[in-house]
């Protein structure tokens, strides 16, 4: 085995033992991650082609609008969605082009 | 971290702590500044603008943060907790715990590649939970130091951050480290917290999404805020009618906060003016009992707000409930004619008061006043001296005050600390307190 392979093995073991040490919080966070991934998928699918407001997105995915807004704010911050205009008093959000993300 | 000696240990890296540290360091005193957060800047770095000048808060705070970090006489200790304090012959021996960042601070360049790679989103406390950041992140773009910190409680240990780090700075095995600082003096600048949003159940704070606290509104008004504009958190609507409820966390026996917090009138007026600029069509109403504009230029500021069309209604808000469109409905008894009316708004800001930050007072064994802030036995003669010689207090750790007064208080604490150190260097006793009555 090369030095790099040896270090990869020890790194993997180290992460494994740390995961065991923090088992409770890791399990909880993995559940959170699954939920977040699902939300991201649902939201991005809805606004991939057509920009929508937060209440519209919330109605389509059946989640509370304040929760959707939290995700939209996070996705906007990290370049996953962009604001594209307004519909009445509500800003419209759309999935950013992959190059923008 | 190795043990070291300083002339002064400043506890708290908000505006008061930074100012005190800079004043002392500029006089040549070796100073350490300790903060429990991963960055200094305190509450002020999260604000939009200051009253009454409407200067940008970040433009005032960021250079001070940078000066603290680069000052040759200041040792900056972020993400540290005080563990214990013992009096010694030459001052105090303070045990401090460096909490693990799981990132080697010497290697991290603040490039944020780890942050962009991390899959977990968590509520960002610098945005009052209304925005998000990743489990590993640099707290915000102007954080000092620009060093990432990993939240192990929200980490799945996927190792992506470690893999992507160009300087191999991520170290999952970091442990808390305890070290000691021997100091002649201590300046306590531990700051304040807002009264809890949910404290007055009848106002719906914490339950109604469109009833918010003033620091949330500060974030909406700041260019780095969670939405990049003013939106109501319930559904992302741009509000066209915004109300402020004054004395929502002060002057209230039922909350145990009987004092006036001194800043609520002014921050509400300031925010109203800033909203007028950001949303020119919005109607802004301030429900108040009294307006207290006591500082230099404050009364003029109040009059300017009135001239800009901000509506001031004297009355006492009894309750807030929500209609079926998530609009808060304010029930208010008008002082003028005693009528009780209900008015509907898009967004309501509760002007919450100030309570002391929990923390260091207990470890320092300092007595508290009736208001739970640090007791200052001779506030007129020696405004920054505590009951323990060598320990000084400044800023909102001693009572509610605004930014102007916090900075004045910090320089006052630095002057008192400097005098104390010099007197002890020369083998003199601490200067005797002047009689309170002389100045009262």
Radius of gyration of chain A: 19 Å
User: Helix proportion of residues of chain B, in percent?
Assistant: 10-25%
Number of domains of chain A: 1
Q: Biggest sheet of chain B, in brief?
A: 7 strands, mixed
Count up the domains of chain B: 3
Distance between the termini of chain A: 38 Å
What is the average of the pLDDT values of chain B? Answer: 95
Overview of this protein structure:
The complex is a heterodimer of chains A (101) and B (440). Helix content of chain A is 63%, strand content 13%. Chain A has 101 residues and is of the alpha+beta class. The longest helix of chain A has 24 residues, at 23-46. Chain A is elongated. The model of chain A has no long low-confidence stretch (mean pLDDT 90). In chain B, helix 1 packs across helix 2 and helix 5 (214-221) runs parallel beside helix 6. Chain B has helices spanning 15-26, 57-70, 113-117, 160-164, 214-221, 264-278, 298-307, 360-364, 403-425, 436-439, and strands at residues 4-11, 31-34, 74-77, 80-88, 91-98, 121-124, 131-134, 136-137, 149-150, 177-188, 192-194, 211-212, 241-245, 283-288, 311-322, 328-334, 340-344, 347-350, 354-356, 391-393. By secondary structure, chain B is α/β, with parallel strands linked by helices. Chain B folds into three domains: 4-99 and 176-191 and 357-439, FAD/NAD(P)-binding domain, CATH 3.50.50.60; 113-158, no CATH class; 196-353, FAD/NAD(P)-binding domain. Chain B has ten helices and 20 strands. At the A-B interface, helix 1, helix 2, helix 3 and helix 4 of A face strand 7 of B.
């Amino acid at each position: 085995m090369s030095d790099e392979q040896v270090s990869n093995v020890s790194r993997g073991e180290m992460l494994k033992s740390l995961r065991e040490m923090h088992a409770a919080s890791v399990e909880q966070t993995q559940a959170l991650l699954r939920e977040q991934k699902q939300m991201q998928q649902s939201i991005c699918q809805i606004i991939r082609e057509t920009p929508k407001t937060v209440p519209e997105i919330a109605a389509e995915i059946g989640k509370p609008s304040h929760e959707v807004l939290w995700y939209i704010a996070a996705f906007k911050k990290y370049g996953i969605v962009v604001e594209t205009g307004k519909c009445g008093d509500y800003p419209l959000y759309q999935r950013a082009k992959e190059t923008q993300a | 971290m190795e043990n070291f000696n300083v002339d002064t240990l400043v506890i708290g890296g908000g505006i008061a702590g930074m100012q005190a540290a800079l004043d002392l360091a500029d006089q040549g005193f070796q100073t350490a500044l300790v903060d429990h957060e991963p960055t200094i800047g305190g509450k002020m770095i999260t604000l939009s603008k200051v009253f009454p000048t409407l200067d940008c808060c970040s433009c005032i705070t960021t250079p001070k943060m940078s000066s603290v970090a680069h000052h040759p006489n200041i040792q900056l200790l972020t993400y540290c907790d005080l563990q214990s304090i013992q009096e010694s012959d030459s001052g105090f021996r303070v045990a401090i715990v460096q909490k693990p960042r799981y990132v080697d601070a010497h290697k991290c360049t603040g490039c944020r590649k780890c942050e962009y790679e991390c899959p977990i989103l968590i509520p960002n406390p610098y945005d009052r939970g209304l925005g998000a950041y990743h489990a590993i992140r640099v707290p915000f773009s102007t954080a000092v130091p620009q060093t990432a910190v990993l939240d192990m409680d929200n980490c799945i240990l996927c190792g992506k951050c470690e893999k992507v780090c160009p300087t191999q700075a991520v170290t999952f095995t970091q442990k808390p480290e305890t070290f000691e600082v021997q100091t002649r003096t201590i300046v306590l600048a531990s700051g304040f917290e807002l009264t809890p949003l949910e404290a007055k159940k009848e106002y719906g704070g914490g339950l109604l999404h469109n009833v918010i606290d003033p620091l949330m509104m500060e974030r909406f008004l700041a260019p780095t805020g969670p939405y990049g504009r003013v939106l109501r958190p319930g559904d992302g609507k741009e509000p066209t009618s915004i109300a402020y409820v004054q004395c929502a966390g002060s002057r209230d026996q039922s909350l145990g906060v009987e004092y006036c917090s001194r800043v609520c009138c002014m921050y509400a007026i300031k925010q109203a003016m800033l909203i007028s600029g950001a949303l020119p069509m919005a109607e802004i109403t301030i429900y108040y009992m009294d307006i207290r504009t006591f500082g230099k230029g404050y009364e003029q500021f109040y009059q300017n707000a009135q001239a800009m069309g901000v509506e001031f209604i004297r009355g006492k808000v009894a309750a807030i409930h929500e209609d079926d469109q998530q609009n808060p409905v304010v029930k208010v008894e008008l002082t003028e004619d005693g009528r009780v009316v209900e008015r509907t708004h898009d967004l309501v800001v509760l002007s919450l008061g100030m309570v002391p930050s929990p923390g260091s007072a207990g470890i320092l064994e300092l007595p508290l006043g009736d208001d739970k802030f640090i007791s200052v036995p001779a506030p007129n003669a020696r405004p920054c001296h505590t009951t323990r010689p060598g320990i000084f207090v400044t800023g909102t750790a001693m009572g509610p005050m605004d930014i102007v007064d916090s900075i004045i208080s910090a320089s006052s604490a630095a002057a008192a600390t400097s005098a104390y150190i010099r007197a002890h260097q020369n083998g003199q006793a601490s200067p005797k307190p002047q009689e309170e009555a002389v100045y009262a």
